[in-house]
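Need a sequence for this fold. Nothing fancy.
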């Protein structure tokens, strides 16, 4: 099942937080959601970079880190061939891999941003939202998409 909400993704109470990143051995992760995650939970970025350096993170792949005692789990999705834009083929494959992993692992919930439609430059209304609805709605995992950023200090 999927729902679209306004709020602060990093304040989510979902079991996992997913985000889109570039494939391969990227030394970036210094912008957007990846930067915010690395500032709050530096061990997450360190673990991901170690995996990415192995050369086993290609378009559409996912990498997961189980929840810790004081943080959610994370899913990094290879939605971008480079640091500057996402592609629909990469995103489609990554979303399918996310759904398959969550189904197989019995994951209760996953929070996502407007994946691929921010710094990734894909069309949210034209492409990405429909793709998420198509592949994530019929699932037992609860997917919560933070469609509008709003932190605790902003009013509804």
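Here you go.
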């Amino acid at each position: 099942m999927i729902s679209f909400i306004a709020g602060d993704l990093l304040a989510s109470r979902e079991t996992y937080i997913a985000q889109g990143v570039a494939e391969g051995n990227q030394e970036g992760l210094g912008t957007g959601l990846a930067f915010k995650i690395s500032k709050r939970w530096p061990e997450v970025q360190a673990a991901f970079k170690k995996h990415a350096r192995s050369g086993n993170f290609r378009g559409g792949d996912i990498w997961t880190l189980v929840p810790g005692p004081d943080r959610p789990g994370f899913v990094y999705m290879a939605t971008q061939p480079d640091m500057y834009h996402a592609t629909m083929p990469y995103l489609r494959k990554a979303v399918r891999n996310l759904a398959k992993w969550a189904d197989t692992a019995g994951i209760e919930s996953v929070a996502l941003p407007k994946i691929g439609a921010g710094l990734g430059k894909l069309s949210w209304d034209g492409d990405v939202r429909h793709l998420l609805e198509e592949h994530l709605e019929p699932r037992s995992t609860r997917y919560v998409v933070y469609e509008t950023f709003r932190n605790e200090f902003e009013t509804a």
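For context: The beta strands are 2-7, 16-22, 62-65, 73-80, 109-112, 142-149.
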